[in-house]
Amino acid sequence: MAKLAILASGSGSNFEALTVALRGSCHEVCLLLCDRPGAMVLERAARLEVPARLISYKGRPKNEAESELAELLEENGADLIALAGFMRLLGPELVRRFRGRLVNIHPSLLPAWPGTHSIERAFAAGDNELGVTVHLVDEGMDTGPILAQARVPRQGDLAATEAAIHATEHLLYSDVIIKLLNNIAEKTC
To answer: CB–CB of 33/58 below 8 Å?
Structure first.
């Protein structure tokens, strides 16, 4: 068995998809770390009975908040850390500490459209094929090594395109995370 910790900032749809997918495996979500008070992901964590902690970045140095985050990850035995809508660029010290264990999902076919509002920017540019990328986290903005991608055809409008991309995210991310956890469990068994 391997343990997954999830970092999230918003509604938590990817958090929920990962949690539900892992319940059908031998792995577990050991912790949710959230940086935004009142984020819907905290409600999802309570409903799904996943331990959750709020990590405040407000009014303190980033490295202090990330030191607390790292301590919680280690205390809870996180073998792998999934970013699921965690809307912060992680500092280099944290990335170095967990290098190779930090995974992110991004709603574009990287290297195209890194950063925020990727779906809207790709749609506005007229891209006919959009998609999803799962990648390892490095010190850059959506620049880490790509683990998997899935293409999503442009839909009739932006809302339908966003819905198709998010549905693809939930499937692809769960698949990649379970494979990574399986590899970790084989090495630790």
So the answer is: no
